[in-house]
């Protein structure tokens, strides 16, 4: 099953690295950018590089959010390791930035590592179609706080001011044939009801996971992005009925028309279903 929870950890807090790995998240994101003050960038880079090189992730994805520009190249060269899943590249405004990061990874023997581009400016938003098609991209993200500041917009509780940008990143991801985008963080970890409702809106918009800044956010994100047994059963029934239909259309158990477009959504639901773990079963 594709990762849905991505837990940020500041790169200068090594005591929290292992805790994050054991938190139940699908992916750990060691942050060398915003979470680390300038005076500690070098120290954080060394701490993260050492930990990633020695880590046994046991199935958890390991990502590192690097810094932009020249500092980011030093970050990439330091953290490139066999266990690294990939890097989160901030402030991306062109496909060339992604491709250059990919060349650095390959030069360091980490050609397997993927890239997630964070788009955080108006220029990056306009370049989304090209960025989405850059070599090495696995999925896109929006840096919504920075983007709002660059656009000069004020975000209220509905976040409707971000609808255009959110729809854009979903659309270009689908057009480029890459994974759906991962939703941006929320600083709200004390009100799980509001956080879950917000995350559910993002899922309906087409996002396929969410970055988290606190372990309390993991459960609601997983609940939102993991289909229920009833949803999986309905999706499987749709696929069965369409396969058995004498033509290219059929009718589901609710009496609704089903065709290949409906089947595509059903396949996505089945693909997101949790897989039985070792030893599970009756």
TrEMBL record:
Protein name in the entry: Citryl-CoA lyase
Keywords attached to this entry: Lyase, Magnesium, Metal-binding
Keyword 4Fe-4S appears in the UniProt entry: no
Domain of life according to the entry: Bacteria
Residues noted as binding Mg(2+) in the record, renumbered to the chain: 120, 146
Organism of this sequence: Nocardia jinanensis
Cofactor: Mg(2+)
PANTHER family membership: HPCH_HPAI ALDOLASE_CITRATE LYASE DOMAIN-CONTAINING PROTEIN (PTHR32308:SF0), LYASE BETA SUBUNIT, PUTATIVE (AFU_ORTHOLOGUE AFUA_4G13030)-RELATED (PTHR32308)
One Pfam short name: HpcH_HpaI
Amino-acid positions noted as binding substrate in the UniProt annotation, renumbered to this chain: 65, 120
HpcH/HpaI aldolase/citrate lyase domain mapped to chain residues: 6-215
